[in-house]
């Protein structure tokens, strides 16, 4: 959270032209710091504040914020994909686009658009090699 707030200093004081901020494993730090259901409200409030700080900075300085998140297994689910994103409604409603990445067949990956303000749900297959990202034909 402190590093996200330092982005503004990098832009203002050092004059950096920031266009992308990546937050890897957004909810991992919140899950490690707050243990048990008794601290759920505090965790949700801090996570919400962190996401709002990132969104305000992105809007003010015109850069993109890309966050990765964790998933958990839902053992009670019998049909479909048993994984569910961590972070609940706080993360879901704070995100403009939500993309679920998973392994595909024969070393490929699949990017599934879960939520978007102007695009329908859909999937695209791809793979990564030495020359970059390639579409699956």
From TrEMBL:
Gene Ontology biological process terms from the UniProt entry: DNA repair
Which GO-annotated molecular functions does the record name? ATP binding; ATP-dependent DNA damage sensor activity; DNA binding
Question: Which branch of life, at top level?
Answer: Bacteria
What InterPro entries does the record point to? P-loop_NTPase, Rad51_C, RecA_ATP-bd, RecA_monomer-monomer_interface
The UniProt record lists the RecA family profile domain at: 1-71, 76-137
Q: What is this protein called?
A: Repair and recombination protein RadA protein
Q: Which organism is it from?
A: Candidatus Nomurabacteria bacterium GW2011_GWA2_40_9
* PANTHER family for this protein: MEIOTIC RECOMBINATION PROTEIN DMC1_LIM15 HOMOLOG, RECA/RAD51/RADA DNA STRAND-PAIRING FAMILY MEMBER
The UniProt entry's coiled-coil ranges are none
Do the record's keywords include Kinase?
A: no
Keywords, comma-separated and alphabetical: ATP-binding, Nucleotide-binding
Give any Pfam family that matches.
Rad51
């Amino acid at each position: 959270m402190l590093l996200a707030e330092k982005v503004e200093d990098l832009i203002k004081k050092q004059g950096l032209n920031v266009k992308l901020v990546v937050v890897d494993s957004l909810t991992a730090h919140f899950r490690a710091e707050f243990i048990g259901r008794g601290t759920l409200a505090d965790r949700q409030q801090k996570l919400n504040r962190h996401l709002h700080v990132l969104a305000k900075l992105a809007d003010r300085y015109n850069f993109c914020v890309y966050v990765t998140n964790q998933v958990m297994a839902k053992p009670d689910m019998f049909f479909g994909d048993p994984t569910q994103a961590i972070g609940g409604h706080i993360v879901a409603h704070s995100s403009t686009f939500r993309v679920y990445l998973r392994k595909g067949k024969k070393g490929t990956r699949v990017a599934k658009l879960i939520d978007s303000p102007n695009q329908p749900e859909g999937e695209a297959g791809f793979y990564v090699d030495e020359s970059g990202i390639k579409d699956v034909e």
